[in-house]
Write a structure and sequence with these properties.
206 residues, 2 domains, binds zinc ion
């Protein structure tokens, strides 16, 4: 999902897949209820989850494909033009900024003017019931909470689960530590060609 952050169509599909996978975690735990000597710990987790906005959103979100309309009111794409000689007084300290439709991929906005300078594209995806909270952060939060409950389930069964968390990290997965690197894209324009710096492999969806 983070991989597709700048490609709206595959992003929506992978968000739908995340929602479905995340919801199946608690569903699976419930169907395995018989395996546990007691299930109070799970009921307690469920009542805690009811007070958590991210998990509440997960519970109410549609299972299947995420529609554009659901993202539209709370999502945005900000483009910054940095160091453009054609925009005097708009140097790095006060770059020229504009908002654009997030429903076009970042490639769509590239290959613009020919003066040598840089662009920065920042994505903010959000949905209803999230109070403007950024989706990647919400999903990382959900992942961590589900990881906790699955871990607790294993503890109750006397099983061991490998942890990928690094010491001092707030996230269970090291790749979710720095979310900005998925949200912000930097490009460089040299001799009329705009190049996406650190573009992920196979990032464009045809
Ligand atoms: Zn520019
Ligand atoms: Zn693209």
């Amino acid at each position: 999902m983070a991989h597709w952050y700048h490609e709206p169509e595959p992003f929506r599909y992978s968000l739908g897949a995340f929602i479905q996978a995340a919801r199946s975690v608690t569903f699976m735990l419930q169907t395995e209820k018989a395996a546990f000597a007691e299930f109070n710990w799970y009921d307690e987790w469920v009542s805690r989850a009811k007070g958590d906005p991210a998990l509440q959103w997960l519970n109410s979100a549609r299972r299947d494909f995420v529609h554009r309309q659901a993202l539209e009111p709370n999502s945005w794409l900000r483009m910054r033009c940095i160091g453009n000689p054609n925009l005097p007084g708009r140097r790095d300290k006060h770059p020229f900024e504009m908002m654009a439709s997030p429903f076009q991929c970042t490639h769509y906005y590239m290959y613009g003017p020919s003066t040598d300078h840089r662009h920065e594209f920042t994505r903010h995806w959000s949905m209803e019931d999230l109070n403007g909270r950024e989706l990647l952060e919400v999903c990382a939060d959900i992942y961590d909470q589900l990881d906790d409950v699955v871990r607790e389930a294993h503890d109750h069964l006397g099983a061991h689960m490998v942890s990928h968390a690094q010491a001092g990290s707030i996230r269970r997965l090291p790749c979710m530590e720095d979310l900005k690197r998925y949200r912000v894209v930097r490009t460089s324009i040299r001799r009329g060609k705009e190049v996406w710096l650190n573009e992920p492999k196979k990032s464009h969806h045809d």
